[in-house]
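[step 3/7] inverse_fold.run input=structure_tokens len=256
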């Protein structure tokens, strides 16, 4: 892994009297898969939105590929993409029509070939002709992932990439994301509540609580630091502000 693709420095975001993100700083290394974790309201989605330029920070600096996202985000937007099961595509358009519209926005040359390739990769071919609004939650998750892969992005921002998927399909999608990163060298920053997914995919984990970065490390480092067996237990410890300075034996005695 080489230089940072994402750099956030002293960033805060206020919504009137609510502080959603509170003076956070972190870098994301090139070709890594990094998790941005925290409970509901921790600031994950707000942070991703600032990286996309959808929200402007109240203070601080956000850069992607060395470009200031406050001033020149148009320079790098073609190099990244985003997926979230909580952001709908146009519901009356078919899946193929939706993907075609986004492919044109990204300047894809051979649109039918790209859509066909993604439909096979994400197993969405059987409902390409159906209106997006008629799909199940799991089908929509696969379609928004296809949208996020249309331009073969160098940076993917993924919010709950396997939400609503059955275990078999979720496992397939994780394998596809692993293979895509190895093949293309892309960088992935993901928010997830699935801790087994984080342990499988991620090289680095950034923990947020109440808008602040409260810990960071590889999954193995965090497991050792908190004396836990899995990332779900670590997540609960951090969410509940359990101390890290306990002896390992004492940590083991603490029950979630």
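[step 3/7] decode complete -> sequence:
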């Amino acid at each position: 892994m080489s230089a940072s693709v994402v750099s956030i420095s002293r960033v805060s975001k206020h919504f009137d009297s609510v502080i959603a993100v509170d003076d956070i700083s972190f870098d994301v290394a090139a070709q890594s898969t990094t998790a941005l974790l925290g409970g509901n309201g921790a600031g994950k989605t707000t942070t991703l939105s600032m990286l996309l330029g959808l929200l402007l920070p109240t203070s601080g600096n956000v850069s992607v590929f060395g470009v200031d996202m406050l001033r020149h985000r148009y320079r790098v937007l073609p190099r990244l993409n985003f997926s979230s099961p909580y952001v709908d595509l146009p519901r009356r358009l078919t899946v193929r029509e939706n993907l075609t519209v986004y492919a044109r926005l990204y300047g894809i040359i051979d649109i039918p070939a790209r859509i066909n390739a993604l439909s096979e990769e994400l197993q969405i071919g059987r409902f390409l002709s159906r209106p997006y609004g008629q799909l199940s939650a799991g089908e929509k998750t696969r379609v928004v992932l296809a949208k996020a892969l249309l331009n073969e992005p160098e940076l993917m921002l993924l919010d709950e990439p396997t939400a609503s998927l059955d275990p078999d399909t979720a496992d397939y999608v994780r394998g596809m994301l692993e293979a895509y990163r190895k093949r293309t060298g892309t960088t992935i920053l993901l928010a997830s509540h699935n801790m087994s997914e984080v342990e499988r995919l991620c090289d680095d984990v950034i923990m947020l609580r109440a808008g602040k970065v409260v810990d960071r490390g590889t999954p193995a480092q965090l497991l050792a630091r908190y004396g836990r067996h899995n990332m779900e237990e670590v997540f609960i410890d951090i969410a509940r502000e359990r101390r890290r300075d306990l002896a390992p034996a004492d940590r083991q005695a603490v029950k979630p």
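[step 4/7] annotate
The two ends are 35 Å apart (CA to CA).
Confidence is low (pLDDT under 50) at residues 249-256.
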